[in-house]
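Summary for the funding panel

The consortium committed to producing paired sequence-structure records for every protein in the target list. Below we show the first two records in order, beginning with the earlier of the two.
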Amino acid sequence: MEIDTAFTLQIDRRLPRAAQVYHALREAILELRLKPGTPISENWICQQCSISRTPAREALIRLTHDELIIVFPQHGSFVAPIRLKKVIEASFVREALEISILKMANAVWQPSDTAAASAILDRQCLHADNNDNKFFFLEDQNFHHYFAQVVGAEGMSTIINEAATHLVRIRRLTHPIEGRMQKALIDHQKILDQMAKGNVDGAIDELTMHLSQVFRTFTAVAEQQPEYFQDFNGLGDDIPEAMRRYLSSYVRTDATNSDEAQSDTSIGSS
């Protein structure tokens, strides 16, 4: 891959340079423009951004702390592989907080909120029809963020986004899978339908199933691009037994429901 074309940044000299480089590199990594295993050096950052080594080094330190960059002494720095354990941990945080947000939103939900959330889904549907993965993903985030907006808890969305860093890359990998965007839309509509009815328990059930899709599609993605993953096949020695059993429950659920899935005439129907 030509990494010089995957990352470009025009530095604003009026703003802190290290922060600009950090955010630009982080976005490039999460969007998979800089793929797992890509070498990232201070010299390369300096050349790309026309900056000194100090802000380049500070940006790399922050990305290493985020575990998006991995450093091998004597070999250099590289974009970190996707680790299933980190994906699971991020999913736990996201699910717990989004369930709490739904509970709060249910207490103040209005028909106008249903209309506003529906408008987001309309835009998402348009992006799915155009096979525009980037903007579909942005509207996906907007949909989940809207519930936090309803209760005035935008800060919780920020916490979710920061905690879910390790979910982002695999979510971006799964959206291009045929039918995946349509399935996400169906899930979103089911969540919204339950909220419109005032059935928060039903909305939570639909949300939980929706968020678990990352585990259901993980194997397919890892089989296609195993070089992106650290612990594909065997799940990795660092994954605790409780997490293994948690993942296995989804595998059993999928096996149980496989006949139902095969009987669907269209993934876009609901």
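The next record, for a separate protein in the list, is shown here:
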Amino acid sequence: MIKQKINFSLVLVLLATLTPAAWAAEINAVLEWSDLRKLGTTVSGKISKVMVRPGMKVKKDDALILLDQRNFDVRVQESHAAMDHARLLMEEAQREQDRAIELYDRTVLSDYDRQQADIGLASAKAVFSKAKADYERARLDKEYSQLNAPYDAVVLNVYVAPGEVVVNETESRVMLEIARADEMLVTTTLDGNQIASLENGQKIDAAFREQWIQGEIHSLSMNDKGYQLAVKVAVQPSDNARAGEASAVRLPQ
């Protein structure tokens, strides 16, 4: 009988040694949005289209909001025409300099006239450089007039509507709010002892709808209650995961 008790105790010790995860502490947690972003454009204009509504899922690079394109198209055309004109003037200034060099070498052109040709070409190049920069800026403004999804996302809030005018001269106005559709954060508050053995990037088990899945520690930060642990877990967009859902994490001993 004593021998059986000893053997049973040895089995328990071996199980504890071989399967430490089974004895890890389980801590209640909640789901939070991952990579939460508030988006807006860097240019001003009138909103032409809002393609999304709260709750919708979008793919990376999908169009979300579009400003009226007419003013941006006009600026692109004007700046392109100005750049073409500046290029012609620069090419003519180059020919003038070539002629001035030839005449100067033949000693039929004064030093002053030779320098004027150089100055004319330098000025024409500067005008062309500015015109080219204006054209690139106009193209960028047109590109920024359409707000696209930076990743596969779920739309959380939309703060604008077609017909509204946004003025972003001093600060970009927030137009909508999104988060990742394929990823969530499992968050909980821990004390100093619990967090001692954890580090960013460490693999850790987290619960998602009564199933344990492997996640990765995204961040370890302080708050007024202790230390906040955030574990990044992959989900399917079709799961329709939402912030506030109950979850849990397993802490290694």
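Regarding this second record: Residues 194 and 251 are 8 Å apart (CA to CA). Residues 20-38+181-251 form a domain with the Elongation Factor Tu (Ef-tu); domain 3 fold (CATH 2.40.30.170).
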